[in-house]
Amino acid sequence: MTRPLNGIRVIGLEQYMAGPYCTMLLADAGAEVIKIERPGRGDPRRAMPPFAEKDGVKKAAGFMGYNRNKKSLALDLQKPEGQEVLRDLINTADVVVENLRPGAMRKIGLTYEALSPDHSKLIWALISGFGQLEGYRGPYSDRPAFDIVAEAMSGIMHQVGFDDKPPSWTIYGMADVYTGMVTSYGIMQALFMRERTGRGQLVDSAMFDNMLSLNEAMVALHSVAGQSPRRGVPKNLFPRGAFQCNDGYIALNVPDNIIWERLCTAMDRPDMIADERCKDGTARAANAGYIQPIIDDWLSAMTREDAVNTLNEIGVPTGPVNRAEDVFADPHVQARGLLMPIDDPEVGEFEFARSPLFLSEAPELPNAPAPALGQHTREVLEDLGYDGERIAALKDAEVVG
Asked: Which residues belong to the active site?
């Protein structure tokens, strides 16, 4: 058996998170991913803490996690010789993934538009903050962006936190990670279309677009009901949120009257089922001040485990609000193999999050460590047919590292 993308070559013109996460997913799926990095410095995430350290060697956790199963080619794209190498390499590739600052590749003339006429099967995934496809460019298209900007502008940030506090971000890098996932999905579509048409295409993936699509509930609520959801203020359903037990919190969601009746039964409060203050989600949201103390009092005598077991047994989906150490100790996480061990030859073995899909007819994911800067430079150049003399000349000219 082989992984789904065995035989597909991907070139990563990538840095930080969105591009590297996308190509990590493709590498996990079996693609050969060649990561292009600046000689001497590499991806900026190589220098971002926290670090794994051993015998004086330091490696950044974020880089180790997002760049497993890849090859590293250290190549200076500011030099004409480096641009020639990249052109030769792209001519052998199926996919290019780019998440550099908008216009960076245009300045050196290496874009999908420039290269696709001679490589009709090429798929080029262009990740940016606000979108690059001609005909769909907007006033923000040339702006750079970080994940928190996309969260803010898509309306997500406005809904996270509490009404008496400023808007809050979700988790670090969520827009990048989600964009990486969506982009890999777009690449899969393009590969499938290529099987039918024989032609590649440009995949335009914008963090802003992706986060707005993730925030589809806000769009629907405003479109249909004219509502603008606010953080920390329930309007259409309650209970929903984190509720405290005597040893931590559980997550509780009551989306309809069926689940509400089950919760009331579990709390031994059948009187609340028919109470006008609790007749539907809107009423419960309006009377959260009455309902919340009752739930809090019931849970106060219970551990998280007791509450989770009691509620799940009666048909109320519930789970604990876990800390990192809880996740690592979770028997379900261990049974599913969701923490992937990666053994780095210099700093040792650590665990990283596994790609989330399981395929019954594919072997388990590869788990090669993230490459050292330029580790595969010679291998990649030799594969292109460059001889030792040419490789040495490129190295002496500091085109490759």
From this structure: 176
